[in-house]
Amino acid sequence: MTDLQQFQIFAKKNNQKIVTNNKAVIYTRVSDVKQKDNTSLESQKEICTEFALKNGYEICAYFGGTHESAKTDERKAYKEMLTFVKRKRITNIIVHSLDRYSRTGGLAIATVENLKKKGIKVLSISQNVDSDTPTGTFMQNFHLLYSRYDNDIRREKTITGMRHRLLNGYYMGVAPLGYKNARNKQNIPIIVPNENANYIEKIFSWKVNQNLSNVEIIDKLKLQGLTIYKQRLTDIFRNPTYCGLLSHSLLDGKVVKGNHQPIISKEMFLRANGIQSKNYQNYSHKKENDNLPLKTFAYCSSCKSPLTGYIVKKKKLYYYKCKTVGCSCNRSSRALHEQFKRLLSCFEIEKKYIAPLKKQLGYTFDHYFKVQKDNTPNLKYSLATIKNKIDKTQERFVLGEIDITLYDKFNSKFEEEKRAIEKELKNNTLKSSNLTKYVDNCIKLFSNLNKIWELSDYVGKQELQKLLFPEGITYNREKDSVRTNLVNPILEITSSLSKLYSKNKSGQVVDFTNLSACVTSAGFKPATS
After folding, report:
1. Secondary element (H or E) of residue 300
2. pLDDT in tens, 344-396
3. What is the CA radius of gyration of the chain?
């Protein structure tokens, strides 16, 4: 008979040693903030503590003690507890009942099983089963699955109630920007406009009446004290809540009438989203009219409202007017266009000054590039810093230190800052080899302003107007004159240089580098025809 002792050196060993000890943590939880005010949490803690002391467990820490939904395992206190027991090599998690531990069903079973492989047990006082045996494991898994089933039943009832409230016109959830959560006389939760409602009105007005881009709207809001990101602004434009309607995933693709006060009209909401609503005569209003290029670009100096336009069919003449009742700001398009062309003439460059202006603009832009170049190291340092923040945020999310909500919040913020810095760096890297091209484009444009404006179509006129006068123009009916408060910085430089050259009879180059300061205040963007 073969002696097996000689073969023992070939035996395979189980290198995975499961270490068990009497160290334990206690986890308590309620699913609703209302339960937090009663003795539920305190009772759980007392019962779990008594169980631990009675059975000889050393309590190392308490976790939970707050309201967290167990329908997901992305709970902050829950994740902190798991991290703690793994790091401190604690092998026992004591809970009052398994539904306090988790209601995720299959996911909870997988989590408990993974903990078990590492020697960590979940001990439930209410369901006292021995998870070391097949029968005990089955019973523990059954209780976890039943908790998921019970949670699904509750969820279905909740969804039915929420859908019913939505169909009755009541907004569900946290109020959007411009509204606040409140209650009506019947103590039913509603939303009402708050102090930010005026921002919503401005946002839609700028988009509809001035045709501003989202970036321009964000900049204007920032100047008025409200910082908002591009994605959120897009969500605002797509949210029918602002015009008195409700849209929700529980409504299965339907939009219903809300019982809250709208901030804007339905027509304005549609126009902001590029949809022209039909009027009662069954025709759509044409926003672009070649005969009224100054519409919404020109403002009444008295009431500050943008000028709209209309046609007198008998005379076949177009007119501009403000929308304020009783203001009586009214002017024919022909007369107002002449006023605007006279304004353009004030900024046109005379041909005899083109050659010296080209040379002087070269000096001015070259000075600007040098100033901007000095700022490049700071921008590169800021870019490296923000990239580091993005990497750390991603790392913390992967490690489970922050949930998806916090990750999205901060990552989108950092990405926005990163794009802004990269854009500024790109502007700083404009090569001097392109300087002649930029100067030629400026001269070509600013020496033919009237001609270019007259020959352009509606869109071309609008683009040129906004390029030259970013905040539009104002029309004074009493004085029958137009003026502008803000001029394109490059246009301001060329105009200033032209006027100074007309006074400088010697023709010598003058030091105008101080004029470049007005470029940096608005950002350098060489004008193109």
Report:
1. strand 298-300
2. 888 887 777 777 777 776 676 666 666 555 567 778 888 889 988 888 887 77
3. 35
**Is this prediction's pTM over 0.85?**
no
Q: Which CATH class is domain 23-158?
A: alpha beta
Is residue 120 classed exposed, middle or buried when 0-12, 13-18 and 19+ CB atoms within 10 A define those classes? buried
Cβ-count burial of 456 within 10 angstroms (0-12 exposed, 13-18 middle, 19+ buried)? middle
Question: What's the CA gap between 307 and 335, in Å, rounded?
Answer: 14
Residue spans per domain, the chain: 23-158, 179-272, 298-346, 351-447+488-522
With CA atoms as reference, report the closest residue to 258 among 182, 192, 178, 174: 192
Torsion of CA 75, 76, 82, 88, to 10 degrees: -170
Taking each helix axis from N to C terminus, what angle separates 404-428 and 376-398, rounded to the nearest 10 degrees? Answer: 160
Is the pLDDT score of 245 beyond 90? yes
For residue 167, the Cα-to-chain-centroid distance in whole angstroms is: 28
pLDDT band at 430 (very low <50, low <70, confident <90, very high): low
Give me the phi and psi of 386, to 5 degrees please.
-70, -35
Q: Which amino acid does the sequence have at 434?
A: N
Supply the CATH classification number for the domain 179-272. Answer: 3.90.1750.20
Helices 106-117 and 134-167 meet at what angle, rounded to 10?
A: 150
At 386-428, the pLDDT tens digits run: 988 888 887 777 666 777 778 888 888 888 888 888 877 776 6
189: part of which helix (H) or strand (E)? strand 189-193
